[in-house]
Design brief:
This protein is of the alpha+beta class. The chain has a domain of 195 residues. The chain has six helices and twelve strands. A hairpin with a 5-residue loop joins strand 2 and strand 3.
Length: 313
């Protein structure tokens, strides 16, 4: 009989409420590595590992910076889901392998991160074996537990490795610059998730724009550098239509549409040309040429004189 089977029978002999709680805990999905394999071919994500020492601000634990062994300082934000884990189990004077969500600034392109977890099975497993198992709310989604397959050790994981999966929206071979858009999953009670862009250094294939890419990226200082990439497929683009309608317009960007061959518009004041058709002109190919006639438009003074003449008569 295995230890798991014995524990299950011992739990079933207790009260029903405690047994139901233990059963729910036993069936919780287990994570064997900090960056698992994607669940679907076009799964968006941006996640990585950084070994560093976290130094919080004196007045706020959730804001601070990471100092890596190579001396790079990276701005960091500690997410609330691991606050309890950090306070109870993590020595901030030591370096740890942090699981992070990367972000880059639009102009500079330098890296800053969100701390989502700590991956140290060798240390945290001791607390679990003693029965001091932190709850999911304390350790977040990265709670190491007793797994069926061997859990990956922190020493076996590559420091500075990132898995970036998303749509490439900009690619410059000359500048070795890649911009990739990541779509986040919708939050509860919402139907549309937010998206953000990451600035990367590297080169991709000839057909990179608007294609979904699976990129293996490494950190070099405060930059993210593409080492390997695989194109998963093209992403369909939404069609855009003119808000004013799709009808064909004649004559450039003026007012409403006009049929070709009609009389010219009257614009401004003064004299205007009014075309006069001769006999037999019907718009066919044998029509005679139209001779413009100069017609002078009446001015305000002439209209006053005409009114005075009628009054005298």
């Amino acid at each position: 009989m295995t230890a798991n089977t014995a524990a299950s029978k011992a739990t079933s002999s207790q009260s029903s409420s405690r047994g139901a709680s233990a059963e729910a805990s036993a069936t919780t999905p287990l994570r064997q590595e900090p960056i698992p394999q994607p669940s679907e071919p076009m799964q968006f994500r941006a996640i990585g590992l950084i070994r560093a020492r976290y130094s919080p601000d004196p007045e706020q634990l959730t804001k601070g910076s990471l100092t890596t062994p190579d001396g790079t300082t990276i701005e960091a934000v500690l997410l609330g889901r691991i606050m309890s884990l950090v306070k109870k189990h993590i020595d901030l004077d030591q370096e740890h392998l942090w699981v992070v969500y990367p972000r880059t600034r639009e102009q500079e392109g330098d890296l800053h991160v969100q701390l989502v977890g700590v991956w140290e099975p060798e240390t945290l497993q001791k607390d679990i074996l003693k029965g001091d198992d932190p709850s999911p709310s304390e350790a977040g989604v990265l709670r190491p537990v007793r797994p069926k397959p061997p859990i990956k050790s922190a020493a076996d994981l590559q420091d500075g490795y990132f898995s970036i999966r998303g749509e490439v929206v900009f690619h410059s071979v000359e500048r070795e610059h890649v911009v990739i858009k990541i779509k986040q999953a919708p939050k509860p009670n919402t139907t549309k998730g937010r998206s953000f862009k990451l600035q990367l250094k590297g080169r991709l294939g000839p057909k990179a724009i608007h294609h979904f890419w699976d990129l293996k990226v490494v950190r070099e200082g405060d930059l993210l550098v593409v080492k390997e990439g695989m194109c998963i497929g093209a992403i369909p683009q939404k069609r855009t239509f003119n808000k004013g309608g799709g009808g064909k317009r004649f004559g450039g960007g003026g007012g409403g549409s006009r049929q070709p061959g009609g009389p010219p518009r009257r614009t401004g004041t003064g004299n205007s040309l009014v075309p006069r058709r001769t006999e037999g002109s019907s718009g066919s190919g044998d029509a005679k040429a139209v001779k413009p006639v100069l017609k002078k438009r009446a001015t305000a003074d002439s209209e006053v004189q005409a009114s005075a003449s009628k009054a005298d008569a």
